[in-house]
Amino acid sequence: MQRAELGIDGNAGFALIGENIQEGECEFVTVDQRKDEPLHVAECRAATKAYNNLKARLGLQHLSYSIGPSHPRFC
User: Fold this and answer.
1) Backbone angles phi, psi at 27, to 5 degrees
2) Left (φ > 0), alpha (ψ -120 to 50) or beta: where does 34 sit?
3) Per residue in 58-72, is it b (16+ CB within 10 Å) or e — as a string?
4) 28 Cβ neighbours under 8 A, 6+ residues apart
5) Under a CB-based contact definition with an 8 Å cutoff, are residues 47 and 14 in contact?
6) How many CB atoms lie within 10 A of CB 57?
7) Given this model, what pLDDT does residue 18 score?
8) d(Cα 70, Cα 63) in Å, to the nearest integer?
9) Nearest Cα to Cα of residue 7 among 57, 66, 61
10) What is the Rg, in whole angstroms, of the alpha carbon atoms belonging to the chain?
11) Contact 8/71 with Cβ under 8 angstroms?
12) Cα(15)–Cα(8) distance, rounded to whole angstroms?
């Protein structure tokens, strides 16, 4: 079964299926921090949006995910 890894890379949230972006499928969404919003909340939102974009692009309605080591722990 496929599983996406969610995380943050630089100024973008990502969702990745596979070992790496060269061999797998990946979506990136730029972190857009709102006024008076903690950075970790904006990062979580970007990673979630990347996950939803990846599911839609691949036509996968049910795709599990795991939280990668670069993902904020407090969402």
Assistant:
1) -130, 140
2) beta
3) eeeeebebeebeebb
4) 9, 12, 13, 14, 50
5) yes
6) 10
7) 92
8) 20
9) 66
10) 12
11) yes
12) 9
Q: How far is CA 59 from CA 22, 44, 63, in A?
A: 20, 22, 10
Query: CA torsion 55→56→61→66, rounded to 10°?
Result: 20
Integer distance in angstroms from the first to the last C-alpha of the chain? Answer: 26
- Stated pTM of the model: 0.91
Helices (H), ranges, the chain: 39-58
- pLDDT per position as a tens digit, 15-73: 999 988 899 999 999 999 999 999 999 999 999 999 999 999 999 989 999 988 888 77
